[in-house]
Amino acid sequence: MISIRxxxxxxxxxxxxxxxxxxxxxxxxxxxxxxxxxxDATAISADGKFVxxxxxxxxxxxxxxxxxxxxWVASSDGRRNQQFTHGKTSCTAASFSxxxxxxxxxxxxxxxxxxxxxxxxxxxGEARQLSNAEQGVTAYAWAPDSRMIAFxxxxxxxxxxxxxxxxxxxxxxxxxxxxxxxxxxxxxxxxHPVARLTGGAFHxxxxxxxxxxxxxxxxxxxxxxxxxxxxxxxxxxGTDISTVGIDDQKVQVLVDLPGADFSPRYSRDGKSVAxxxxxxxxxxxxxxxxxLVPASGGETTKLSAxxxxxxxxxxxSENNKHIFFREADGTAQRFFSLPINGEPAVVITHGAGTYTxxxxxxxxxxxxxxxxxxxxxxxxxxxxxxxxxLKKITNLNRDxxxxxxxxxxxxxxxxxxxxxIQGLLTYPVYHQIDRSAPLIVLLHDGPNxxxxxxxxxxxxxxxxxxxxxxxxAVLRPNPRGSTGYGKEYRxxxxxxxxxxxxxxxxxxxxxxxxxxxxxxxxxxxxxxxYGGYLAAFITTxxxxxxxxxxxxxxxxxxxxxxxxxxxxxxxxxxxGSLWQNFDTYVRHSPVFNVAGARxxxxxxHGENDQLVPxxxxxxxxxxxxxxxxxxxxxxxxAGHTATAPGTIIxxxxxxxxWFNHQLGxxxxxxxxxxx
Length: 675
Description:
Elements: E1 2-4, H1 7-23, H2 30-33, E2 38-44, E3 50-61, E4 64-75, E5 81-83, E6 91-96, E7 102-107, E8 116-121, E9 128-129, E10 137-142, E11 148-154, E12 177-183, E13 194-196, E14 203-204, E15 214-216, E16 222-228, E17 240-245, E18 251-255, E19 261-266, E20 272-277, E21 289-294, E22 301-302, E23 312-316, E24 322-329, E25 332-339, E26 346-347, E27 354-360, E28 366-372, E29 379-384, E30 391-392, E31 408-414, E32 420-426, E33 437-443, H3 464-469, E34 473-478, H4 487-490, H5 500-514, E35 518-528, H6 530-541, E36 547-551, H7 557-561, H8 567-573, H9 582-587, E37 601-606, H10 615-626, E38 631-636, H11 645-663
Parallel strand pairs: 1-38, 33-34, 33-35, 35-36, 36-37, 37-38
Antiparallel strand pairs: 2-3, 3-4, 4-5, 6-7, 7-8, 8-9, 10-11, 11-12, 12-13, 14-16, 15-16, 16-17, 17-18, 19-20, 20-21, 21-22, 23-24, 24-25, 25-26, 27-28, 28-29, 29-30, 31-32, 32-34
Helix pairs in contact: 1-11
């Protein structure tokens, strides 16, 4: 059965589910968990006295369900906390002016040109629009003297006079993002003057178009930036670093090592630039180190390798002797301090949970961050960088239902070859020690990502506590290929998709069955992206699972090689292009191994997915149908991530219904139970 959800029906289903969940919370459910408010990026003021942060809330509109994001501001002493932006249009990417007088943000309010920079006085008053970029602003940063803001924006679309019903030539007119400045104050004509700093056939962006593409010199006379050949994601291996003068707009190459060099950050004295580089070996799984280069140019110096070799620079210490970075550490995310004298990094944030979304004060003496654990709600905290001690300054989701949760713990097991593997095990809400439960094996995307100790009752495609409420145990393994366990571990499934990592997963299932937590005859498996691929591949190798749910998954790597928007990903992981290594593509494709598969499989996919086109879902669907395997295919009006509130509710509810049906279980209901 193929089902396509229409947007109008989406709205009605989402609204009904949301209202019922809020008014009648009988336990954790996908609809209830979609009401969870997500905290996004933090921004700490220069003096460290205030922290701005973004909060995303699910909402309804005439067009459908989405998230409305607004900015809040809290004082670092925890005494003040209030919403700063309002309205029907989202506001994101908050940043304080260095002099503390203004708070800037990005918003598309009143604009058809995409997000623009807005400026609001900290003392109160209406926000005013600074930029008017034709394609919207992609990133921005304040000058040290607060007089102007640098931003990146795509070049205007060239007018070619073609009719809309005529064909277009792919890649014929590439667009580039370039640097501009806009004055924070109006001139005598009542406008904010804009100046263009860069131009030409290069694209300014972080390797994967995230934050951190450029940084101001402390004296405000130059900007250092990362750039690549074009905007295509596959162009990231050629990323280099250059500087541009503010007055003369002169561009000078600073770092052009082989491979990808990115995330440049000036030291506080302006003498050095720290950056991340793969050392000339660009791989999608990432094996990166932090380097230094004199700000005026010269020889680069590689600092001590980090434990996972996948650092994300936060900034420099107050004395310019350390570089702060964030990195995965097993099932945790932590902050570290890396000495520039070559000594190894040391951990700053200890204990359970994840530490994410950092911002660093101008002096480098305070962090703002978000901390959460599997059972503790995410909130914003501040801490000293020298003597870390978390101070909670928000109380987000204070009105979220106080329901009993299934306990989550970190477990480990030994693979067949002796490798230790870790994962997270969540027990059923009403777990009985002397009785085993049905098990859901939830596989993470990537493969170079990981399941971490994040809050398990937040809204997500796969609602862990809703599964636990229904009596399921949930195992989230981090098989080889996952990040957080070092370079060799992360690279261990190269040319081995669905093999060594699948064996690690099955060994984890044996562990949980041996603990008498999981019943061996009631096993289910699911995942999204690579997790969906691994779920599909495992069910072609094993008949242990009673049901599977496969989301946005590659199923035929041969056809995917020529249709994905990211072809270099496959050729990197599989040891060469399709025509160079055809047998490998076949060997690791679920549809070429489907003979004999018997696991009932639900397939979910976004019909606008360009990374894994929906044809992949149809290939698996028809292959299973031809094998007389119970299957259904659900298409969503979404891209690859499929994270709209209505979508995640529907995915969670359908997945639960599929597993319950295949296991012959009735949906479980219960009453509100305090933790």
